[in-house]
C-alpha cells in the first residue's frame, strides 16, 4: 500500500471525526493498549501435545486443511507469523494440553509449572503475556461429567487438575509481572433426559469452592458457561445462570463466549447487566453459525455490538479480550489474522463513536437524532484510522497480509505432512 495514500485518507478521517469531537490520535493510542488474548488452539484444531486422541467434550473442529502445527515448535512459529500480521501487542491463551511434556505422558493430575517453563521463556523472549485454561476434555476420564461427577474419584481427579492449573497460571503471572487470566470451562452435561440436575450443580459448586479456596495473587479466575455441547444436548451443568450466580456471589470474572447463547440472544446485552455484579469479564470472541460452530470472527453486527457495549459502559479496563474459534477448513494462520483484525476493527469503530453527543440526544428524548447518528457512523472513514494503526505498527495494510500468508504456506506449512 502506498503510504502517502494512507496518510491522506487518515488526515481526512481525522478531520471528519474531529467534527464530532473525536480525537483519532488518542483513539490510536487506546488501540495500542488493546491487547487480544490469542487462543493457541486455532493453530492445530484443539489437538494439543498430550496424546493423539480424539477431541471430546462436546466441541468439534471441522475441516482438514493441510499444514496444522504438530508440535510446540511449529505452533510457536505459526503464532509468531500471525502476530507479525496483526498490529499491536497481544497475549497468548494456552490450554493445559499444550504443555511441554518432553515426549512423556504427563497425566492431568500430575501437571506442574515446569511443563510450562519453555512457554514462559518463549513469552518473555517474544513480548507475549500468557493466559491459561484447565483442560477437562479429550481424556479417558472426561466422560460426560468431570467436576460434577458423582464418582468422587473422578471428581477429585479433575479438582486436582484444576488446582494445579491455577498454580501454573500463578507462575505465569509472576513471571510476566501481570496476572495470568485462567479460564475454567468444563463440558459436564447429559445427552438425554436426566433427573439429577440439582445434585450435579451442587457438586460443581462444591468442586469450584474447593478449587478456588487457595488464594493466588498472580492469576485471576474466570468461569465460562454454555447452552449445550455436541453429544450433551439435553442438559448443561455449567449453564449461564449457574456461572453468573457463582461469579456474582464469589467475585469471579465471568467469561462471555459469543457462541454460547441461544441464537437470538445477544451476548452484547450481557455486558451492562453483569458488570453491575461481577468485577470483570473475559471474552471468548467467536462466531456461531447455526450452533456453537466456532467460525472465524468477522466484523459482524453481534461483534460490533459487543465492543460498543463495553466502550459505552466505560468498561475497557474491566474486560479481557480472548478469542475462541477453531476453523480447520481454511489456512489456520489466515484464520488468526482475519479474526484478530476483525476484533480490532470492532473495537476501533466502538472507540470512534461520538458517545457523548449520542447519549445527550438520547437523554433529551431526541430519538430520531440518535438513530441518524448511529447510522451515519457506520459509513464514517474508520478504515483509514485502521490503516494508520497498521502503518504505525509496521504491519501490512489492507489485504497485503494475504500474500504474506500464501508465502508462509508455500515455504512452511505446506511442507508439513
Ligand atoms: C467450549 C468453550 C471453550 C473451548 C476452549 C477450547 O465450548 O468455548 O472455551 O472452546 O476452551
Ligand atoms: Zn469459549
Strand order of the largest sheet: 1-2-3-4-6-8-9-12
Instruction: Write down the CATH topology.
Output: TIM Barrel
> What is the N-to-C order of secondary-structure elements (H for helix, E for strand)?
HHEHEHEHEEHEEHEHEEEHEHHHHH
Q: Please count the helical segments.
A: 14
Instruction: Please outline the major beta sheet.
Output: 8 strands, parallel, barrel
**Ligands in the structure?**
L-rhamnitol, zinc ion
Low-confidence stretches: none
The share of residues in helices is 40-55%
Oligomer: single chain
Strand proportion, as a percent range, falls in 5-15%
Would you summarize the structure shown here?
This protein has 14 helices and 12 strands.
Protein topology:
Blueprint: H1 3-18, H2 24-32, E1 36-39, H3 72-83, E2 91-95, H4 117-125, E3 130-133, H5 152-176, E4 180-184, E5 189-190, H6 197-211, E6 219-224, E7 235-236, H7 240-250, E8 253-257, H8 268-274, E9 281-285, E10 287-289, E11 291-295, H9 301-312, E12 319-323, H10 332-351, H11 355-363, H12 367-378, H13 382-392, H14 400-411
Parallel strand pairs: 1-2, 1-12, 2-3, 3-4, 4-6, 6-8, 8-9, 9-12
Antiparallel strand pairs: 5-7, 10-11
L-rhamnitol binds at residues 41, 46, 59, 133, 185, 224, 226, 257, 284, 292, 324.
Question: Can you walk me through this structure?
Answer:
The protein has 417 residues and is an alpha/beta fold. The protein has a single domain (35-352, 391-415), classed as Divalent-metal-dependent TIM barrel enzymes (TIM Barrel), CATH 3.20.20.150. The chain contains 14 helices and twelve strands. It is globular. The mean pLDDT is 98.
Amino acid at each position: 500500500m502506498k503510504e502517502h495514500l494512507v496518510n491522506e485518507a487518515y488526515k481526512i478521517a481525522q478531520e471528519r471525526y474531529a467534527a464530532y469531537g473525536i480525537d483519532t490520535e488518542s483513539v490510536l493510542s487506546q488501540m495500542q493498549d488493546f491487547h487480544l488474548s490469542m487462543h493457541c488452539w486455532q493453530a492445530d484444531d484443539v489437538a494439543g501435545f498430550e496424546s493423539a486422541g480424539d477431541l471430546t467434550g462436546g466441541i468439534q473442529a471441522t475441516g482438514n486443511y493441510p499444514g496444522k502445527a504438530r508440535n510446540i515448535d511449529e505452533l510457536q512459529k505459526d503464532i509468531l507469523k500471525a502476530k507479525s500480521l496483526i498490529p499491536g501487542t497481544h497475549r497468548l491463551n494456552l490450554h493445559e494440553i499444550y504443555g511441554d511434556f518432553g515426549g512423556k505422558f504427563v497425566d492431568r493430575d500430575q501437571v506442574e509449572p515446569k511443563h510450562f517453563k519453555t512457554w514462559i521463556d518463549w513469552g518473555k523472549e517474544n513480548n507475549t503475556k500468557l493466559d491459561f485454561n484447565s483442560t477437562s476434555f479429550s481424556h479417558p476420564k472426561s466422560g460426560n461429567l468431570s467436576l460434577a461427577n458423582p464418582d468422587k474419584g473422578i471428581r477429585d481427579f479433575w479438582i486436582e487438575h484444576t488446582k494445579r492449573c491455577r498454580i501454573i497460571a500463578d507462575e505465569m503471572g509472576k513471571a510476566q509481572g501481570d496476572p495470568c487470566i485462567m479460564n475454567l470451562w468444563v463440558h459436564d452435561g447429559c445427552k438425554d433426559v436426566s433427573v439429577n440436575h440439582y445434585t450435579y450443580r451442587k457438586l460443581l459448586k462444591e468442586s469450584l469452592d474447593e478449587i478456588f479456596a487457595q488464594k493466588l495473587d498472580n492469576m485471576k479466575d474466570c468461569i465460562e458457561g454454555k447452552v449445550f455441547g455436541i453429544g450433551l444436548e439435553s442438559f448443561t451443568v455449567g449453564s449461564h445462570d449457574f456461572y453468573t450466580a457463582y461469579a456474582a456471589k464469589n467475585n469471579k470474572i465471568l467469561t462471555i463466549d459469543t457462541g454460547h447463547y441461544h441464537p437470538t440472544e445477544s451476548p452484547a446485552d450481557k455486558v451492562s447487566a453483569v458488570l453491575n455484579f461481577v468485577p470483570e469479564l473475559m471474552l471468548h470472541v467467536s462466531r456461531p453459525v447455526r450452533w456453537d460452530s466456532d467460525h472465524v470472527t468477522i466484523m459482524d453486527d453481534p461483534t460490533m455490538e459487543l465492543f460498543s457495549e463495553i466502550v459505552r459502559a466505560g468498561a475497557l479496563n474491566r474486560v479481557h479480550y480472548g478469542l475462541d474459534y477453531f476453523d480447520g477448513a481454511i489456512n489456520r494462520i489466515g484464520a488468526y489474522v482475519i479474526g484478530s483484525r476483525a476484533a480490532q476493527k470492532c473495537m476501533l469503530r466502538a472507540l470512534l463513536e461520538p458517545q457523548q453527543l449520542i447519549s445527550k440526544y438520547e437523554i433529551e428524548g431526541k430519538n430520531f437524532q440518535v438513530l441518524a447518528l448511529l447510522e451515519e457512523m457506520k459509513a464514517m472513514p474508520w478504515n483509514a484510522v485502521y490503516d494508520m494503526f497498521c502503518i504505525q505498527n509496521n504491519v501490512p495494510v489492507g489485504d497485503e497480509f494475504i500474500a504474506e500468508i500464501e508465502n508462509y504456506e508455500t515455504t512452511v506449512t505446506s511442507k508439513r505432512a
